[in-house]
Structure formats: C-alpha cells, structure tokens
Amino acid sequence: MLKTFSLGGVHPAENKLSAGQKIEVLPVPEQVSVPIAQHIGAPSEPLVKKGDTVKVGQLIAKSAGFVSANIHSPVSGIVQKIDDVLDASGYKRKAIIIKTEGDEWDESIDRSPALNKTIVASPEEIVKKVGAAGIVGLGGATFPAHVKLSVPPGKKCDVLILNGVECEPYLTSDHQLMMEKGEEIMVGTQILMKGLGVDRAIIGIENNKKDAIEHLTNLAKDYSGIEIQPLKVQYPQGGEKQLIDACIGRQIPSGKLPIEVGAVVQNVGTTFAVYEAVQKNKPLFERVVTVTGKSVSKPSNFLTRVGTPISTLIEAAGGLPEGTGKVIGGGPMMGKALSSIEVPVTKGSSGVLVVPEAESKRSEVQNCIRCSKCVSACPMGLSPYLLMTLSNKAMWDRAEEGKIMDCIECGSCSFTCPSSRPLLDYIRFGKGKVGQIIRGRNK
Amino acid sequence: MNTLTVSPSPHVHGGDSVKKNMYGVVIALLPALAASLYYFGIGALVVTLTSVVSCVLFEWLIQKYLLRVPTTVSDGSAILTGLLLAFNMPTYLPIWIIIIGSLVAIGIGKMSFGGLGNNPFNPALVGRVFLLISFPVQMTLWPKPFESRFSYFNLTPDILDATTGATPLAAMKEGIANGETVSQIMDKLPSFNEMFFGLMGGSAGEVAAGMLLIGLVYLLLKKIITWHIPVSVIGSIFIFTGILHVVDPLVYASPVFHILTGGVMLGAIFMATDYVSSPMSNKGMILYGVGIGVITVLIRVFGSYPEGVSFAILIMNGFVPLIDRYIKPKRFGESVKPLKA
Amino acid sequence: MNVVLITIITLGALGAVAAIILYFVAQKFKVFEDPRIDQVEEVLPAANCGGCGFPGCRAFAEAMVKADDISTMNCPVGGAEVMAKAAAVLGKEVEAAAPKLAVVKCNGTCENRPRLTTYDGASTCAIAASLYGGETGCSYGCYGLGDCVEACTFDAIYMDEETGLPVVDEEKCVACGACVSACPKNIIELRKQGPKGRRVFVSCVNKDKGAVARKVCSAACIGCKKCEKECPFGAITVVNNLAYIDDSKCKLCRKCVVVCPTNAIHEVNFPPRKPKPAIESTEKKSAE
Q: Which of A125, A136, A382, B177 could form a disulfide with A39, with the two C-beta atoms 3.0–4.6 Å apart?
C-alpha cells in the first residue's frame, strides 16, 4: 500500500501526453514582456528605464519587501517601455518590455554544463543567493523561496520535503526535469538542506512516474540523507499540506505554515533553480513549460525565457489547433483560463493547456442533491456544499466558522459534483471576502 | 478564430451526474424487483408499473403546468421514487390508491419543497406513510408469495382468504399479545433461510433480503453510497434487539428475525440512504443510522404498529438539518497536536 | 357529576395561578419602548430595503426617535413626503432631499463593445470580476450578469436582452442604493432625478487612455476634455481620462452632449431636439 494523504482527494484522468518528451530549448524571442508582479507578495520595483541596454540575467526590478522577489532580464537588448499591459485576467499590470538584440549574458553567470557538486556557500550565503536570484516556488504558487528558507525564530525545521508529485493532469515539466536534471536536483537538495540546517530530505513522487522514481532512487544512493518516497496517485497530493501529510504523516493545523510541524516544502523545479543560482550564479529567468492538450499536434516540454508570449510556445508545439475553446495557464485543476494567448510566460507558468471547444464548457448546473460527494472529496475536511451556499448568501461569519479560509482551492469539490455546481467559484469568492473581513478586524 | 472561453478552475469535471447516480440506484433495485415479480406475479407488476408511471407523470405535470419550470423527469429521480414507493406497498393494493400515494409522494413530498434536492423527507416514505394512515386496511392486506401470483384483478373473498396472511412481524406482535412465547410463534413462521430469500408476506420489494444485499454491493462498488448508513441502521437494530433477546428470549424475538423481516433491509439500503434527506458527514450518517435503528426497535417492540422502519426514517429525516449543523466532517489538522518547536 | 366539578375546579385554579404568575413575570421583564417608534414605523414604507443606511424600517424609526437632528436622514423610498410625516410625529425638522435615481453608467452594448472571450463560470458579476476583466476588452464596463437585478427588491432594474446592459425602471426605482453596492464595477450611481426626470450624465466609467478605451468600445469616454471646455457652469471635470458631470452644478443645457465625439454623454427625458428628429426620420426612411 503506497502512502498518500489522509483525507479526501480525487483522481482525474492523468493525460500526461507530453511525458517522455525531451526538454527542448526555445529560441530567444524577439521581444519579451516581463511583468513586475510574478510572485506572491509586493510587486518588484523596476530599476531600468526606457532606452536602457540590458544583458541576460541583469537585475531589472528589485524586491520590494520581505515577501517579494528580484526580477532579472531574460534577454539582452533595449528596454522599450515600462507600461501597463493586459495580464492573463484582462486587467492591466505593469511590465517591462524589452526588445531583444543578440544574446549576451551577464559575465558572472557560469554557462558551462558541467555538474558542480561541491557546495562552498555557507547557509547564510545560500539564503542570500536564493533571494538575490529571484527564485520563487515554481510549482505555481510562486511564493518567494528565500522566505521559506528563513526559518522564523522559535521554530525548528527537521525535514525538507521536495515536491516531485506533479499531481495536475497533463503537466510533465517537473517529471521531465527530474529525468534530465536529476543530478542537479540532488545537489540542489543538498544546498537547500544545508541552507535549512537539516539532515533529512524526502522527495515525494507519484507512482505514475515510475521512471523518475527509479532514476532518482539510483542517484540518491550517492547523496546522504535524501530519500525518495513513491506516493499513490491522488489529487491534490502536490498541495503543501497534503504532501507533508503523505510523506511524514504530520498534519498542519488550520491557518498555520508547514514550519509548524517542522517541515519545509520546495518544488523540484525550484530546487533545480536553486542549484543554478548557488552553483552557477544564474538567476531565475527561464523555466520548463509543458505545452499540451488533446488537440495539440506536438505536446512538448520547452525551456523558455520568462516574458515569452504564450502564443510563441503554442506555435512551437504545432500551432493553435482549429476549434480551440480554451487555453489554460497551468494544469486543468488549478490553472487559470487565459483571456488572450499574447500574455507572457512568468516564473509561475508550469504549463499551457489547450482545450478543444467541446471540452471547454461546463455542464448545466442542477440543484444540489446533498449527495455529500464534495464532503468526501475535500482534502481539507470542509463542507463545500455549505460554504458555497453561505458564500452565495453573504453569511460571512458562518463561512469563517466553517473554516472557509482553510480551503486550498484544489477544485476537488467542483470536479466531483454530480450536479456540476460551481462550488469552488463561490468558495474562492467567499474566501476573498472573509479574508478581507479578517484583515480588517486585525488592524 | 472563435472566442476563448474563460472560466474559473477547475477546468475538468469527473463526469459524475445526477442521472448516473439515480439510474445506478434503479439498477441496484432490479434484483429485488425480479424477486418481487417472481413471488407476487401480476400484483407486483401492476403495482410497480402504476407507481412508476404515475410518479413520473405527476412530476412532469407539476413542473410543466403548475410550476412552469424546465422539466427534469429525465434525471431518473421520479422513477426511483416510484420504484421505492411500489416496493413499500402490498401487491394487492388497488390502482387508485397507488395513484394517490404517488401524488402525495411527488406533489407533497418533493415538489412542494422545490423539487429534487430540497425535500427534507424521503418522498417515497411520505407517500407510503400517508397511505398507511389513510388506508390501513388495504395497506396491511398481505398477499402470500407464490399463491397470490395470478390473482390481482379477480379478488373474490374466497381468493383473498386463501392468498393472504399476516407478515411475520404482525404475527409476532399478535402472538406475544396473546401470551405465546417467541419460540412458539417462530414455529409457525417461515425459517430464517426462507426469510432471507423472501418467502414471507410483506410489501412488494422488501421481502427478499438477499436480493437487496446484492443491490447494496452494487451501490457500494459504484460508490453511489457509502457504508455508513446501511451498516449503522442494520447494526444498531441487531445490537438493540440482541440485548433485548438476551434479557428475555421468551418475549423478545432474536436479532436475526428483526433484521430479516419487514422493511429493515429495504429501508437501510435504499430509503435511509436517500441523498437529499440524509446527513452530509460520515459521523452524522452514523448517528442518523443509529437513530433509525433505535426508533425502529422501539416502535416494533413497544409501539402499537408491528413495523416502524418508515416512521423511524421520517423522524430521523427531521433531525438531519440539526445533525448537519452540529456534526461537521473531520477537518484536516484538527485532531493532530502541533510538534513542540 | 363530582368528576366534572373537580375537573373544572382544578383546571380553573391552575389557570388562575398560571395567569397570576404570567402577570408578575410580564411586569418584571417589561421592556420600555418609546411608543413613537411604532408611530414612526407606521409612517415608513415598510420596504426594509436598507436604503437609509439602517437595517430595516424599524431600525431607522428607532434611530430617528433617538437622534436630536434628523435633517441628514432620508428615506429614499418614501421621499420628502414620508420624511415630513415622520418629522411631524416627532416634532423635528427635516429638509426635503432631492429625489434620486439609480443611473447605469456603461454604454458597452454588444455593438459598441465586441466580445473577445466567453465567460463560463458561476453567473454572478462579483465572481466574474474576481476572476478577470470581463468578456470584452474593457475591464471597467458592465459584465451583464445581473447582480444589480438580484439585489433590487423593488423589481426596478432588468437586463436588456439586446444590449446586455441593465436598465433602470424610473417609475419603480426608489434610489435605495442596493444595486450600487451590488455592482463590483461601480457602474451604477445615484444621481438627481432632475426636473421632469431630465438628466445628463457620462455613461462610461473607463479610465484608460483615450486610444485604448476607444479601441475596445466605440462609445467609451476617451477623456478628450471637449465637454469640460464646453460646459459654461464648470460642472464637468475630467480625472483619469474620465469625464464626470457634477449633478449639483449641471444646468441641463446639453451642450456637452453635442460636443462629445463618442456619444458617451447621455441625455434622458428631454423633448426631442429640432435637428435630431430630421436625422432619425431619414434614418428610418432609409431603413424602410
């Protein structure tokens, strides 16, 4: 019996169409649009102005607060303008637009592919370097990585958990990264362990990636303290709370962070970025993005610069198929539907999913039949049916009492509902409202 | 290019639907229906057909002409209500009474509250209990299996005498009232083995415990229901009557007798598990199931009716909002103590 | 006979005892309430819409009884008439507030503002707004999902199927403001009803630069400031590329309507202008 998390969960069709596709390096785009808010926390402050010449890896916007991240230029060229551009939500956000000229990298970056195993940096230097390189959680949450590495006083971390679960259907970027950059991930893990001062790391991988489990298990023999934990395929295992529960059986209490139970979770993609930042001095300006979908002619995993338009990626995967109904940034369970395919790749873009028209519409909403399937599916043990109603009726105090803030927005409730009710739509909205009320009260 | 669709996540759906669940339960009822047709023949056929057809028809008429809302008869819930109602009626019931029962079940039990999903009580049971109180004579005229197979339209007093009898529960109640001991009464009744296969008087669908259990297995395999309600209902009846039986085996019948007779199997597997009128959390379901079990035994052993499953389920239906308000599912991280830093 | 007598006496005695207990309990727990609250509540329209800023008519009545000065309070449903009556009950002064009306400030009909995406989520504006900027390129405009219609307790606002925009029924609207707070885009504003219902207002809330706004909606305010210059009363100000007409200064001269290049300024309930009917009639003829 394989380990998994203890409450709820669903099993969507996996559809890992791009599994096994080698990571392909995309050509440098002609122009990039780099949003200054690519992470959770305060938007960064631009350091360049119109007409400036920048190199690849040059700092172009600096972190504006503790929970914020640096942003580096993904290309070399001239800053065209700093202006409001439409983001994936159709709202305007500030971005730095750079016209590419050549591909000149910052001299400090070590571009050699050789594996560098010796870790010379001290723990403090590691945290500092991770912060300077602008690394954020690459699994999609985009939480600045250095913040997680800074264990707050009074708390103790005893285990590092790496997220190689990739529980979202379709996506394969982490899987492919583990297959191709396994050694680097191992070194990255050692760096993170040193940074956190722990001697145990667990890499959780779902059992549908048997090759990755085998590959990393073989590699891990040469590194001390790294265990590979195969996990039963179950969504949302990649959720931080669920992963800790699955790997070490500790449950984070409501409203607390993983450090409460002595764990820190990082994505394997983030770990690779940490390796590059610490050993190669390379900041985060490119990432692996899966471009996939049942109608896509060539589902692929691309290594692409941040700021590349999504349309370029789709073009590289064989073009936007006829009869496309929806394009999703991320996976089908938690990804965001894009209102335009001209929006850029950001640090948090793990995939682009093209959905044919026939599958892009939701079924008709029916009455709740109180089947309690949402209750059984909820990995946080909430009552989605009730939270939806409370949210619809604006009964915020009872929604708070029902722990609406514990919702991780995994979508298992909406996925499983026989009446196709938009449970998560309402719960997410209610969560926003209740969050505002709580913040207002704490002021 | 056509316009892109934008919607909040999740963008995929598990493919489950109300229809799948409702027709799933209907399929689970088929073995018991087959047994009913085998034992009660024409009567069972007439009762089932009338009930299903009139339930569907009433739902359609009410939605189309009274409420003027889109009709939802195709979702299968009216068929299910009709089947369950038929299963709860004796097979000699006149057609007009069945139609009245269907009207009450659909009209009062379901539609007056706003249709599927909003009814606090199980519609089929509302119809059944209404009939039981309104037409006590017809509703307790129990045909004997096999002997009643070919008589429905030619019920002369002679045939009635020859083909009807008391249910085991009624016989037990009467016997004990007359001062007989349990074992004396049991000698006159079918064996447990016969009861398991349904060789006794009773409502159309409730007699064949074995067939109903096949349905339970199907429901559990298809994940239409969870084990909590059926197990807690049957379990609590078994334990409660077991205790009574141990205290005084002369007056209180054995627990096996209690779970094999009357509507326990049908009620526990198909009626109490009705989605709409049962609690949402697992803990709540167990409390609800135990409540049904205890009330059933209280009515059977100490009340004036020989059978109490329907009443017990309806009473517990009434408690469901309260159960849901105070019994919440176990939350993630609720019971785990944080580690010491 | 005896039985009957005993029954009557026992029950009678029980009743009497209960009545005495009840009387004392009622005395003990009596809550004093100003009788004027009931009187004022009687006058109020009992719509319980919350338009006055209090939860329901009774709460408003209580507040009016308590307050020393009720001149700032207003019942939008009842208007000046009801307030005068309430003031008469209380013997307090009240100012007649100008009657107001909800005005929808979006001109993004299907023709003016082409749909670029299709929304397929929970059909409330609030959720759509928390998800993205809307089906059109204009992230300020109406979503057309009818949160305002839901919020209205007077059945005074409905969705126009053709334009996809909400329409206020002037007869029914009481300016309670429920739709104003329901709209996540702040499109609806309470404006003065105006003499004979005549109003002039900017029917747009887009704050984008002119070129951007015009690209996504042909009837958007582009912040060109023509109206601001034209207005003889200084009633129009352009802030953030958006013109706004102050209804306390506007004299309804309608000069701004004429100069607006995108027809974003609307005039309602005016008698037809002299040159305009000519154009309309030719249009009609050509259509025929």
A: A136
